[in-house]
Write the structure tokens for this entry.
Amino acid sequence: MITNWAQQFVKVFQNYSKFKYPKLHSWIYHITDLIRKYGSLNGFSTETYESLHKDFVKTPYYLTNKQNIETQIMKLVINI
């Protein structure tokens, strides 16, 4: 499920984000096991993801008519 999510994430945001792919690799292959073993990780910032959420979800949401929201957001994001 995580691998599928990561592939979709890369596909959607590859042209719009300055996302660091090594961090994505860490998410997919290492972090979930480490969180299970040691708890939450220090030093991993959520700033990038919060910013992406704001720019690619919250802002486009306010521009929709609140019907078929996902479709409208994807159309808005792709046209950025």
